[in-house]
Every structure is written in structure tokens, then in C-alpha cells.
């Protein structure tokens, strides 16, 4: 089985905030559009922080993919924090905030046990 997982996180020091819109238009939109047009299913690991930066037309594109069954949204930390380095209450708050943003903006809750769950991956080491 071949599975495609896209990682969407715009909270990098290397991308100046003034250029985030350009990154979205030149990277996110063409890739999402091409995959959806060709009906290629994929999982999208995107942070709540990044979702809040996306313009409505890009959110609509993601929602259309979810509704068509081509896009599966994964859960993550809201700011892509390294959860094991945080106290438990802060790690839980990161996960909860991410879920709340996805429910609000995408009208979906990341589900467990999807294409990219731990039980569906294997190691070849």
C-alpha cells in the first residue's frame, strides 16, 4: 500500500511572516488542487496554528477534500510543539486546541486509527 501524508506547518523561523501568503499560494494551493483534481487520497497533517493563517479559499479546498473522502485530517499539536518536552497539562492543551481549531474551521475532528495510525505502519529495520 502506498499512502501519501502531507505536512503543513508554517511556523518556521525560516519563513518570514510577510511571505506566508506567498508560500500558501505557490505551494499549498497547487499541490492540494492537483491531488484533488486527480482524486488522489491523502492525509493532511496540518497544525491548528497554520489553519488559522489559511485564507478562506484554501480552507474551502481542504473542506471539499474532506467531504469527498479524499482528505483525512490528522491530529497534532496546535503549534507543532515537541510534546514530550512539555509538562503533561501543556501537551494536553496543545492537542485540545488543535482539535478545537479543526472542528471550528474544517468541521471535522481528527480521528484515531486512520490510514496513518501506529497500527497501520511498519518498520523495516
The parts where pLDDT drops under 50 for at least 5 residues are 114-125
What's the name of the CATH homologous superfamily? Glycoside hydrolase/deacetylase
What is the number of E strands?
3
CATH architecture: Alpha-Beta Barrel
- Number of helices, counting only DSSP H or I runs of 4 residues or more: 4
Shape: globular
CATH class label: Alpha Beta
Strand order of the largest sheet: 1-2-3
Largest sheet: 3 strands, parallel
Task: State mean pLDDT (0 to 100 scale).
Answer: 85
As a whole number of angstroms, the C-alpha radius of gyration is 15 Å
**Percentage of residues in strands:** 5-15%
Helical proportion, percent range: 40-55%
Order of helices and strands: EHEHHEH
CATH topology: TIM Barrel
Describe the 3D structure:
This protein has 125 residues and is mainly alpha-helical. It has a single domain (5-113), classed as TIM Barrel (Alpha-Beta Barrel), CATH 3.20.20. Helix content is 45%, strand content 10%. The protein is built from four helices and three strands; from the N terminus they run E-H-E-H-H-E-H. It has helices spanning 20-37, 48-53, 56-68, 88-106; strands at residues 5-8, 42-46, 71-73. Strands 1-2-3 form a three-stranded parallel sheet. It is globular. Mean pLDDT is 85; it is low at 114-125. This is Glycoside hydrolase family 57 N-terminal domain-containing protein. Residues 17-112 form the Glycoside hydrolase family 57 N-terminal domain. It comes from Thermococcus radiotolerans. Pfam families: Glyco_hydro_57 (PF03065). Residues 106-125 are annotated as: Disordered.
